[in-house]
Specification:
CATH superfamily: START domain
Shape: globular
CATH architecture: 2-Layer Sandwich
Largest sheet: 8 strands, antiparallel
CATH class: Alpha Beta
Distance between the termini: 18 Å
Strand content: 35-45%
Helix content: 10-25%
Order of helices and strands: EEHHEEEEEEH
Number of strands: 8
């Protein structure tokens, strides 16, 4: 895995997942599969709604080990099975108002040994926010790799 940033507002993560691109793509788009890995290690997904179509909305609730719930939502902008997925991302506050929105592009490329998963998320408001998301995604990808096969 690599964490390469062109600047403080761009996060780029890469991970080799030991299954074909179709399987990895499904882990991102099938609700029953997504909830098994979504969120950092130690988090669970007690609620989710995914309307997986271009223009469709998605929302998940992540509950941390401390019991606090975090809500995040967005819209699917591109769905090209099994190669590419583009969606928006914004955390919601306690009143349901969405904060700063970023865009995530995920590509799924055939590679020796499975799929090269590349996530690019941008723009972030700060380097700190980018780095915290990088830690969260890296932890989530550990879970994803563990259930992929």
């Amino acid at each position: 895995m690599s964490d390469i940033a062109a600047n403080d507002t761009v996060l780029r993560l890469e991970r080799l997942i030991a299954v074909p691109p179709e399987r990895v793509f499904d882990l991102w788009t099938e609700p029953d599969l997504l909830v098994r890995w979504w969120g950092p290690e130690g988090f669970e997904i007690p609620a989710h709604a995914l309307d997986v179509r271009v223009g469709g909305r998605w929302r998940t609730t992540m509950r941390g080990p401390d019991g606090n719930a975090l809500h995040v939502s967005g819209v699917y902008r591109a769905i090209e099975r099994p190669r590419r997925l583009v969606l928006t991302w914004a955390w919601e506050d306690s009143d349901g108002a969405r904060g700063h929105e970023s865009e995530i592009t995920v590509t799924f490329e055939p590679a020796p040994g499975g799929t090269r998963l590349v996530l690019v998320q941008q723009p972030f408001e700060s380097k700190d926010s980018r780095d915290r998301h990088g830690e969260g995604w890296s932890s989530s990808f550990n879970k994803l790799a563990g259930i992929a096969g």
